Amino acid sequence: MNEICIIYCPTHKAFTSPKKRWMKIADALAAHNVSYDVIYSEERQSVEKLVTKAVNDGYKTLVIAGGDSALNDAVNSLMRMEIHQRDNVMLGVIPNGIMNDFAAYWGLTYNNVEKSIRSIVERRIRRVDAGCLRYKNKEGEKKQRYFIDCVNVGLLASIQGLKQKTRRVLWSRKVSFTVSLLLTIFHRLTFKMRYKINETDETHRVTTLCIGSAWGYGQTPNATPYSGMLDVTVVRSTLLMQHIEAIFFFLIGRLLNSKRILPYRTRSIRILSDKRLPVTVDGHPLKEQIRTMTVDIEPEVINFIIEESEKSKKSQ
After folding, report:
1. Using one digit for the tens of pLDDT, what is the confidence trace for 220-247?
2. Are 309 and 115 in contact (CB under 8 A)?
3. Nearest to 189 by CA among 208, 211, 210
4. What is the pTM of this model?
């Protein structure tokens, strides 16, 4: 048995079949003389089980060839393990999903397989945070879901499936997000939210709210996944021209400069709403629509393989 286990999560992107994509990844692994075992994930729900099985089988390095939602499943599997067991596992990624935002934070992209393989070979480890969403389902049962990029609440969560569809065709993550943001002009949904954050207790009509431990698909651009803090971006209900202004600031990389956007940094936030809220966790929509939730952070609990870049050097 090899030390490295790769869990391959096929995705259908424009002009690329899953078979050809895997051949490209396998060729890069062979070029770097990487010894590994591979497991194919036939469906999204199987990733958590495969991660648990791989760790129980003795693999110390798990590489997810998939996107943010597959990474999310891997993190949730690891966070259910005993600390001593989780601390012996290193998690890496080869971007292969519709959304690869967490990988992009470290400079790893879908189009540069070579860079991802090199990061696995060099084995530079950074302990990263895991955010945790806690809520109750309609039966009153306590539930939780971990994340390493972001939780979206409100309108953008409700059209997350639409974003995934646009991402299949629009190769740029920024173009994909911008198209989705433009589509919010035609979906004038707002949610009355009360949120408690730090010493603040606010109530607003909110279009969307993003809680990020990393970039949050451009909505929490200053967040870092090893700070032990969460960045929160609240987009208040806006008039049409104010909405267009917010899109403009996003395009030039200054989203938080918009007057209709409220930024916060915190360790915990509690959200209450007058109606059920659509929620996505690392791009994956929750089946339950909930009214009350708490989001907090567990600092540096995952061993993550990062790319040796200027950004990663500064984080050491």
Report:
1. 989 999 999 999 999 887 655 455 555 5
2. no
3. 208
4. 0.85
